Amino acid sequence: MNIAMDVSIMVQCRTGTEEYTEGLVWGLSRIGLSIVGIGKQRSAILPDRPCLGIQPGPKRPLWEKFWWERWGIQGAVRSDFDLIHIPYMTHPPSPFRIPSLVTIHDLIPFRLEEYQARVRERAYFSQVRKNLAQAGHLVAISEATFADLQGLMPNLAAKVTVIPNGIHPAYFVKAPAADVERVVRALGLERHPRILYAGGYDFRKNVATLVQAAEVVLDRHDGELILVGGRGQAAVERRVASSRVADRIVLTPWLSREDLAALYHACDLFAYPSLYEGFGMPPAQALAAKIPLVASDIPSVRETVGDAGVLVDATAVEAWVDGLTRVIESPQLAQNLVQAGTERAARLAWDRIAVRYRELYEHLVSK
Fold first, then answer.
1. Does 157 lie in the same domain as 21?
2. What is the predicted pLDDT for the residue at 277?
């Protein structure tokens, strides 16, 4: 098969969609299926390098994104391609000449009001919703996302296959001690237990609840909270600055994958307080890195984590305090969580997930 992948999104590293795209291409290459990347000039897909061999750069202008998704991608699909896979939620307003597959990560723009505030976003996603009907097939990355899709776009449900996200191999391998020590020094980490959070800082990530719970936990245990995130950091910085344990909360922007994997291995537990996710990539990475975790009891995270984490009411500070304290104070509980997590993470290795994509590609091409 000659499969094309839209890699136009690969202009910045390591948000969830880019992580997914890179991981999928990496997994497909491991099972002998090569992918042709389209949407980036003078760039090739090189899955053993960060960002598929595409150097990170500035965010694309909106007009360029709009042009590519509506017209450009149609012209880039060659006659020798067997299938086009668009790894994020978009599709041109008319069908391709070949089978098309679109990945649906989540329904955030349609479910959460804070993502509907601007007319521009509402207009864009209104078109996305309309154009998805032209896709040959869809992949939902979790049963939770599929349930959302059934509720919000029931006309599309019949052409959806659920295939979970995968976990990059970097998180399965114990980071070299020198890398762990380098990251610990760079961030100035000095205490245990170390509670780690990695993700965004927008409202749905609910980081303020974690900070509030950590104030209580760090009063009892002389540890530290490490927050790794990207956009929206200013609001979190203000919240941390006003905390009575501000000297034990470390904020850092996005790290390279190697540094983030090393940081997982330098910490004692992982916390994920999100209110809504399509899958929950960071908790899955924590499972692979063999770090016990406490996470919000929401459908997608429950599906990913199962009994391999302590799941708590996302908005109840007391529940977070209790969950974090239980893991910190019970080495046996932490060990049990790690063992269960190792087994769950193994099923999400990208080379195993890629087999399911290859089977789906074969089915769609043969129809």
1. yes
2. 95
Of the given ranges (26-30, 182-186, 232-236), which has the lowest mean pLDDT? Answer: 232-236
User: Which residues is 79 bridged to in the sheet?
Assistant: none
- Answer yes or no: are the C-beta atoms of 229 and 210 closer than 8 Å: no
Torsion of CA 118, 124, 126, 131, to 10 degrees: -170
Q: Which CATH number is 133's domain given?
A: 3.40.50.2000
Percent of the chain residues topping a pLDDT of 90: 70
Torsions phi, psi of 302, nearest 5? -60, -40
Structure tokens at 170: 């970097």
Residue type, 6: D
Structure tokens at 211: 């900070």
In sequence order, the 6+-apart residues with CB closer than 8 A to the CB of 28 are: 3, 34, 35, 354, 357, 358
Do 276 and 106 touch, CB atoms closer than 8 A? Answer: yes
In this structure, the answer to whether residues 141 and 212 fall within a common structural domain is no
Q: Residue 221: which domain range?
A: 169-346
Q: Are residues 173 and 233 in the same domain?
A: yes
pLDDT at 230 over 80: no
Q: How many domains does the chain have?
A: 2
CA distances from 170 to 59, 288, 354 (A): 26, 9, 17
CA dist., res. 310 & res. 321, Å (int): 12
The confidence score (pLDDT) of residue 231 equals 58
Mean pLDDT across the stretch 253-267? 90
Q: How confident is the prediction for the chain on average, in pLDDT?
A: 91
